[in-house]
Design a protein that fits this description.
The complex is a heterodimer of chains A (620) and B (333). Chain A folds into three domains: 4-227, Pyruvate-ferredoxin oxidoreductase, PFOR, domain III (Pyruvate-ferredoxin Oxidoreductase, domain 3, 3-Layer(aba) Sandwich); 239-425, Thiamin diphosphate (ThDP)-binding fold, Pyr/PP domains (Rossmann fold, 3-Layer(aba) Sandwich); 509-612, Rossmann fold (3-Layer(aba) Sandwich). Chain A contains 20 helices and 23 strands. Chain A is an alpha/beta fold and 620 residues long. The longest helix of chain A is centred in the middle third of the chain and has 20 residues, at 199-218. Chain B has a domain at 9-216 and 297-301: Thiamin diphosphate (ThDP)-binding fold, Pyr/PP domains (Rossmann fold, 3-Layer(aba) Sandwich). Chain B has helices at 26-40, 75-85, 97-103, 105-114, 159-165, 179-191, 213-216, 218-224, 272-278, 299-313, 318-322, and strands at 47-51, 66-69, 90-96, 118-124, 170-175, 196-201, 225-227, 235-236, 242-246, 252-256, 286-293, 327-330. In chain B, a hairpin with a 5-residue loop joins strand 8 (235-236) and strand 9 (242-246). Chain B is globular. Classes of the chains: A alpha/beta (620), B alpha/beta (333). Chains A and B meet through helix 1, strand 9, helix 9, strand 11 and helix 11 of A and strand 1, strand 2, helix 2, helix 4 and helix 10 of B. Strand 9 of chain A pairs antiparallel with strand 12 (327-330) of chain B, so a sheet runs across the interface.
């Protein structure tokens, strides 16, 4: 290349946080995932946080329609998508309005100046132009006319101007590729693949991408470019995976490990639908997906399938789970396996469909009529969804019980590198289908697990009837007997309690004893883990337990907690795990609670730890 | 099916005491179903009865087959999942006018539109029995019940037009008092490959006694019922002296049987005739028998075909699936 500025030596960084923001129609999610893919292939560790509105196309140019995608990528292990972006790409004034406050002081701000017209400024609610009125002082601003540069890049192609303007996101991507010294060849072939059916659009996007990259090479506005070396991840084969994809793959794997067919009933709901989309692709594994007429049909069909000897599963979000509640009660009464994945979102009611929250713990653990305990597990990150699904399925199958697996919107749509498991090392799940008619009683129990026999239609001599009416403790016939009812209520509770006997010992990260134990669950894993690392580096004695098992709680949790002076429970709700810990174990804790539809910042958790743990100077 | 199984009615009788009210028409339906079952020549371990909630929904407990007594209204959905997971099973749904048309109306119409291979028996007594006498979605307009002391103000469903409108491939009606006819209809429903909807009038002696007298009493039923037979003229009356034909305004009319009558064709692709018969209102006779029986692919078979086709094209390989997309390797050093 004749341009000598391209010879600038990139500066090495340990990590960076980049946020792409624009209109819902600007393709920000695609831009983000493309950049993520390249970061993963580059060997960085990473975590992402897509953040988009519930409206598919809110009025263009308004703050209501702003869609964002944040990624933290690093030369070391990464646990969260980062608190504050180092680089913010704002495609229009509305994106700038929504996201500028988050940008790190002195951070790099890349804006499409062509969109800062009086009309767009007004639509976004700016009184004057922030690029000229001092608003962006203190940031390193790169103002580029995206509109003009993509038009020039696509000159001579004969494409309609509308199609040309749609390539602006790839221009932005190209610029950020240059900024972080990324490999353009891989991205160019990815563009060709993506637009394989429209070679003209492929070429236009490729040109826009390259134009963005070259713009970076020629600009002198920044101290860039940077480079971030690959992280030292554990040896193995990796792929980047989204949480909802990993949930689907986990269910397929669980079916395989148990030798059962998978039946997945589901009704479209944000943010759970992606699990259905993913599973629907993989019919060759004997996966039946059923898009039901409603949430209730989705779960009851799964129960019907389980009665037939399949692994019945369903996924939904808060409002959908509320509708499934009665059916979950039926599954626990007739004691059949059922996996219910709950992708939590902001509630109550319709709430914040595309935002994340942890406010369905109560619904999962306590939200049914009657004495109706079910095991509840939580997944902690996108890649973890795979293992969590297998474990939830194991418990469901071995204990003949519905199991709720709590995920959330940020886990489902977020992504991270996943060290692919060795299939040989996956646990085997023994479905133990009953085939022997000798002495068969539908509600006889395994003395260890208290599970009843799973006798499926087609098995001669085991014809029997189950239903939601109280059952006789042995025959399963309808029984209104008072003593029998209490015995059955207690037995069902005891069965669920016994699941805790199969847990591995509770893992404690950080200090084995000290000032603070942080007990967290679900999608806060990343922020809490990073906060703990920071706090310990500052000399505090802090431990961390991240719960996989929400109900029943681990038997050793009280003993672990007793080794610390304080227990901190950070949650994206008003204290549901806290109350659960107090009710189940009598544990006194301090809460850190946030309900803004957003994950914790690491700094928020760290400062909560600091309040409970004086910097431990006395430690030698 | 290979060989005769030599099953008898008693093989289908469970050990549970039947707990319907004395005089309930459900007894007759139960006995008729148990009588017809051996004729299907299906091993009883391959038969499942699924129900919801209500008097009729206790039915599975009395059948010595596999059975699920589900939750209110959801039997068609439970049965859909079961049938899609195990297409080789013979699955019956037993529901009522409240269970199937009110709380479970959505599941019923979707099971019919999907053409799930289910035999759906809807026991219609035009009242809520188990909850002790409230108006149901088939109670006639103005009906006085505990929940409608001044008379209902909402119009009833016609279960036949509802089922036809939902795209049911098999729609029939019978009445519990005519067990010979009921047995014939049940045989036809069982033989149908696809969603078979059987509407069964059933008297509730406690909360809605006599609801169907005008169609079941010996003196009146020949004039008030139209017994449907495929390929036969649509005639009724004691000596088949009355006939249905298409009159002005595309309306079915009854008149003396002189010369031609409309001929019943249950296999018609379009819904016009079946819908017209289903919608007959007194004083015109009410249709009895099979209104529609057409062949369409079932959802359970189609879904299974997709799975088998996918497996032929891409044999299941979990390792390959996990390793799909952009994969990279981190070395040991």
């Amino acid at each position: 290349m004749q341009d000598q500025t391209s010879a600038r030596t990139p500066r090495n960084l340990d990590q960076a946080v980049v946020r792409f923001a624009g209109d819902s129609g600007d393709g920000m999610q695609l831009t983000g995932t493309e950049f993520t893919r390249e970061a993963a292939l580059h060997g960085n560790d990473l975590a992402t946080f897509p953040d988009f509105p519930a409206e598919i196309r809110a009025p263009a140019g308004t703050t209501a329609g702003v869609s964002g995608y944040q990624i933290q990528f690093a030369a070391h292990e990464v646990f969260s998508a980062g608190d504050q972006p180092d680089t913010l790409v704002a495609m229009n004034p509305a994106a700038l309005k929504v996201h500028l406050a988050d940008l790190k002081k002195g951070g790099l701000l890349v804006v499409n100046e062509a969109s800062f017209t009086p009309g767009d400024l007004t639509r976004a609610g700016w009184k004057s132009n922030p690029l000229t009125d001092g608003t962006v002082e203190g940031y390193r601003v790169i103002q580029v006319d995206f509109d003009k540069l993509v038009t020039l890049a696509c000159e001579g192609m004969g494409l309609p101007a509308k199609d040309v303007q749609r390539t602006k996101n790839f221009f932005a991507l190209g610029f950020v590729f240059w900024l972080y010294s990324r490999d353009t060849a891989r991205e160019e072939s990815s563009i060709r693949e993506r637009f394989a059916k429209r070679p003209d659009l492929a070429e236009a996007n490729r040109r826009a991408f390259k134009a963005g990259y070259y713009y970076g090479e020629t600009t002198e506005a920044a101290d860039a470019p940077y480079q971030i070396a690959p992280a030292r991840l554990q040896p193995g084969t990796y792929r980047n995976v989204m949480g909802s994809t990993a949930l689907a793959l986990g269910l397929i794997a669980a079916a395989r490990q148990s030798g059962l067919r998978l039946f997945f009933g589901s009704y479209p709901i944000t943010p759970a639908s992606d699990v259905l989309h993913e599973l629907a692709k993989h019919r060759q594994f004997g996966v039946t997906t059923f898009q039901a007429e409603d949430e209730i049909a989705a779960v009851t069909a799964a129960i019907g399938a389980s009665f037939g000897g399949a692994l019945g599963a369903t996924a939904s979000s808060g409002p959908g789970v509320a509708l499934k509640t009665e059916a979950i009660g039926l599954a626990l009464m007739i004691e059949l396996p059922l996996v219910i994945v709950v992708a939590q979102r902001g509630g109550p009611s319709t709430g914040l469909p595309t935002k994340t929250e942890q406010s369905d713990l109560f619904q999962a653990v306590y939200g049914r009529n009657g004495e109706s305990p079910v095991p509840v597990l939580a997944t902690r990150s996108p890649a973890d969804c795979f293992d969590a699904c297998i474990e939830a399925s194991r418990i469901a199958i071995e204990y003949r019980t519905p199991v709720i697996l709590l995920s959330d919107g940020a886990i489902g749509t977020g992504s991270e590198p996943w060290k692919l498991p060795d299939l040989e090392a996956l646990p085997r799940i023994d479905a133990k289908l009953r085939t022997d008619p000798e002495g068969f009683q539908p509600y006889d129990r395994d003395p260890e697990t208290l599970a009843r026999p799973w006798a499926v239609p087609g098995t001669k001599g085991l014809e029997h009837r189950v239903g939601g009416l109280e059952k006789d403790a042995t025959t399963g016939n309808v029984s209104y007997d008072a003593q029998n009812h209490e015995r059955m209520v207690r037995t069902r509770a005891e069965k669920v309690q016994r699941v805790a006997r199969t847990y591995p010992p509770t893992e404690v990260a950080g200090d084995p004893d000290g000032d603070v134990l942080v007990i967290s669950w679900g999608g806060t894993y990343g922020s809490v883990t990073q906060a703990l690392i920071d706090a310990r580096a500052a000399g505090m004695r802090v431990g961390h337990v991240h719960l996989r098992y929400i109900h029943p709680l681990p038997l050793d949790l009280l003993t672990v907690a007793a080794r610390y002076r304080n227990v901190l429970v950070p949650e994206l709700n008003l204290g549901q795990l806290r109350l659960h810990l107090r009710g189940q174990l009598g544990m006194e804790t301090v809460g850190l609670n946030k309900v803004q539809g957003k994950p914790f910042h690491v700094a928020e958790v760290r400062s909560a730890i600091e309040k409970l743990a004086p910097r431990a100077k006395e430690i030698a | 099916m290979s060989g005769k199984l030599n099953l008898a009615k008693k093989d289908f009788v469970s050990d549970q005491e039947v707990r319907w009210c004395p005089g309930c028409a459900d007894f007759a339906i139960l006995a008729t179903v148990q009588k017809v079952m051996p004729e299907l020549n299906v091993p009883k371990e391959n038969i499942v009865f699924v129900s919801g909630i209500g008097c009729s929904s206790r039915f599975p407990y009395y059948m010595n087959t596999y059975g699920i007594h589900g939750i209110h209204g959801r039997a068609p959905a439970i049965a859909t999942g079961l049938k899609m997971a195990r297409p080789e099973l013979t699955v019956f749904v037993v529901t009522g006018d409240g269970d199937g048309l009110s709380i479970g109306g959505n599941h019923l119409i979707h099971a019919l539109r999907r053409n799930v291979d289910l035999k759906i028996l809807l026991f219609d007594n035009r009242i809520y029995g188990l909850t002790k006498g409230q108006a149901s979605p088939t109670s006639e307009l103005g009906k006085k019940t505990k929940s409608s002391p001044y008379g209902t103000v909402d119009r009833p469903f016609n279960p036949l037009t509802l089922a036809l409108g939902a795209g049911a491939t098999f729609v029939a009606r019978s009445v519990a008092t005519d067990t010979t006819h009921l047995a014939q209809v049940l045989r036809r429903a069982a033989a149908h490959k696809g969603a078979a909807f059987v509407h069964i009038w059933q008297n509730c002696p406690v909360f809605n006694d006599g609801a169907f007298d005008e169609w079941s009493e010996r003196e009146v039923r020949d004039d008030s019922l139209l017994k449907l037979e495929h390929g036969k003229p649509l005639v009724f009356g004691k000596s088949k002296e009355k006939a249905l034909r298409i009159g002005d305004g595309f309306r079915l009319e009854a008149g003396p049987m002189t010369g031609s009558a409309l001929v019943h064709d249950e296999t018609r692709d379009d819904l016009a005739l079946a819908m017209a018969l289903a919608a007959l209102e007194p004083p015109l006779p009410q249709p009895m028998g099979v209104l529609r029986a057409v062949q369409r692919p079932t959802v359970d078979a189609l879904a299974r075909e997709q799975e088998e086709e996918a497996a032929r094209k891409r044999p299941p390989d979990l390792r390959a699936l996990l390793h799909s997309g952009d994969v990279w390797t981190v070395g040991t050093n």
